[in-house]
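#struct-queue
[09:14] JT: dropping the first one here, sequence first, then the structure tokens:
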Amino acid sequence: MTEALPMKTEKRVNLKRVRTIPIARRDSKVSSAQFAKLFSGHQDSFRAFVSSLPDILMAKDLRALVSEVRRSRSTRKPVIWMMGAHVVKVGLAPIVNDLIERDMISHVAMNSAAAIHDVEMAMWGKTSEDVAANLRDGTFGMARETGDFINSTLTRAYRKRIAQTGYGEALGNRLLKERPEGLSHSILATCIRKDIPVTVHAALGTDIIHQQPSMDGAATGELSMRDFRSLAQTCTGLVGGGVVFNIGSAVILPEVFLKALTVARNLGSEARGFTTAVFDMYTHYRPTMNVKVRPTQDGGTGYFFIGHHEIMIPLLGAMIVSELEQ
């Protein structure tokens, strides 16, 4: 016959001894006042929809960002719109141009891929080739007209030895001179017409125009370097206000911005106390650290909004316009 095992002493807390508190004494992060409001289609304004959003987390942050854009422009602080190529590829140029027209953006900085899409949409009404298909036979990126237009524009500006002309300015002026059918789609041309800085920041060898016979590395490098200096100048105004957006650039513009901000501070600007906002479909190291965290670590606020550009940027633009109309 098997002997019974000895009973083990229980090592469990006695919940009867736990002390509770009245809920009235507890600090709570969410209240019913913050909940979403029902939005019905018959209401006549987008503002009603914005007001219906919950005052919690990203919706709350987005409202705060929009208010800061308005405040910054009302006090003539810079609003720098940094953008990658995807912004143009997914059809958002009309929204960016509208914000420029409304004086809500005071400087546009883009990578050179964005400039390529901008030029192609303005000149020929189409952009974004099938990379996988054209890579097979070596024709990827070999559209002659695109390379000839951009590279010849940069080379001409470089050879004139006019130190004031940068990459973005040269392309914007050329588009205004040519007056193509799609001119209204061009962010480059809109910036020049509205007399705000538009800068293009190239990394040599990264773009389709760099692989064509018309490429002039000296011209591209010099004009892009001039644009870096222009961005650094704008950064000197980020004192006690201003907003820096980074829309869809994972590497180039976060790196360029960090260096431009460093130059501004090195030359004596107290460029602190401003707001940064990253909009991207994923979290990335450089946008997080070089735009959201490091520039605002000693004063300022950084945001990171996750979502598809073709949804988030129209929402952002509409909220800024709605804020202006209040």
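[09:21] JT: and here's the second one, same format:
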Amino acid sequence: MKEQDIKNILISKFKVAVILPCYNEEVAIHKTVTDFKQQLPESVIYVFDNNSTDHTAEYARTAGAIVVHVSKKGKGNVVRRMFADINADIYLMADGDATYDADSASNLIKKLIDESLDMVVGCRADQGENENYRRGHRLGNRMLTSSVRMIFGGEFTDMLSGYRAFSRRYVKSFPNLSTGFEIETELTIHALELRMPYGELVTPYNARLEGSFSELSTYRDGIRILKTIGRLYRVERPLQFFSIIGFIFAFASILISLPILQEYLVTGLVPRLPTAVLSVGLMLSAQLAIVCGIVLDNVTRGRQELRRIAYLGVQGVPVLEDYNTL
């Protein structure tokens, strides 16, 4: 039996939903749906149309997809609806622009099942075609991915990839506070914070079809992603975040107080009273910041415990008996 046939038999034992967020993708959506339908014939394909002004919804239906309209603009809002509305054992998310390789779909799902993972990220390999990434995308992706690794840990190499396979347990425990393209950052950090098992798989990344255009803005969305990392750092690592602020205030307080202290030890006088008051104020602010960090750290631990309980309350991908004999 061929390897692909074995994969199809294995995947057919689960309810698989292919979820495609779309905005003005009439050029590529028919090909995208057709390709995934060919690779995952037992799956149900959903196209979530985010107020497209072209024929995206019509072409998606023609290709055999179920179309759902989402009125709130932004990929994060679309993903929120997808995760809330669709019930399945396994979710495969990709974009509707035909850039993600449908041939890799079964490999992503099989890895999720084989290794009992909650998320598998398709790391993009661009086949040497420079037009796949616009100017600044590669550098920005590396910088943002490195920032997340440094702050939250983990071993992700392509944090911004939109090609992912999820377990039901992941999807139904994901709070989703993002509205735009920063959603991939939140998806990644959610897995890290709940210590979920995750994996990566290198997949081809294709150039857009002629006449297809991306809505992603390199600099505007890059700044939004950076802000999201900062916000999640403050929320998920409050002790570290406020301790850094506290140490900065404390260092500034000590720095400006040294000349005053030196003069006081020599003369017994404090001639620059406003500077002395400023130094005291900075030191009190430093102590307050550290105390806030300690209090918020306890609150965050309680939130993490509740999220973990919610995560465990949802059934993951069922473990099958030995399917390697197929």
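[09:30] RK: nice, looked through the second one.
[09:31] RK: The domain at 3-236 is CATH 3.90.550.10 (Spore Coat Polysaccharide Biosynthesis Protein SpsA; Chain A).
[09:31] JT: good to know. The chain has eleven helices and seven strands.
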